[in-house]
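A protein record pairs a chain with a discrete description of its three-dimensional fold. The following entry can be read in just this way.
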Amino acid sequence: MKITTNFKGYFFACLAATTYGLNPLFALPLYRLGYDVDNVLLWRYFYAVLILGMFFAVTRRPIGLAKRQIIPMISCGICMTISSITLYRAFSVMDVSISVTLLFVYPIIVALVNVIGFHEKIRLSTILGVILSLLGVIALCKSDGQANVNLEGIVCSILSAFAYAFYMIIVRETSIKTLPSSVLTFYCLGVGILIFLFRIIVWGSFHFSFTWMAWGCQLAMAILPSIVSLTATNLAIGYIGSTPTAILGALEPVTGILVGVIIFDEALTLRFVTGIVLILVAVLIVIVGGNKESKKELET
């Protein structure tokens, strides 16, 4: 069976969303061990860069940049770092489910920027996908009046959404889109390390715990939400574009709910089931709509 470009794009978009949704699973235990946001992210990025660097050394893959790619690369790294800092800060001051819910405004930002700024044609399937995804994410958000919500967490989550949206747009619309996804991830993470080091030196202090829990969480964050998720995101953007990739990011909160139910024995309520179903329907609509559009383009 021939694997189409669209299929590859949807697969990598779903992989990116589900692995990125594992961020809280590894971050929260590190907070309990005394790590702050900058130290959690520093070690997450450091181990990811170390692993990728070893991979490049073994495979002898060239990782050079053209001059015209330097500024977009730095911009991309800054956006990704800002998104990480603000999201992890939101995790530390507000319920994870609400933080992830608010983060999911980024598909709307991506879609609007692409339509207004780059005159991208918006599909009916895209509109329906955005609406159903938002309804699903809202359903996943706690609504029993006992949720931990505060202004700082809300602002951080929204800022994270804007930064992540512009990261995706820069990858799609600048010269770095021709870079291999692993090389793009490597340099973006490298920019982040420099920023975290600066922040720690100026405002904080280094923290490292020599426990199996700390090592496991740091390595897991480096591999899954960092290397796998970011590389898959870059691949998906190259195959299907930033708007569908962003919409399929609705699988991130679904991952969080499933982790809570399976690992932490949390209750699977009707509200959660409804949210998951709405999001899965939205994903199917986007995929089917994209396939139909591609067939029309081929026929014409």
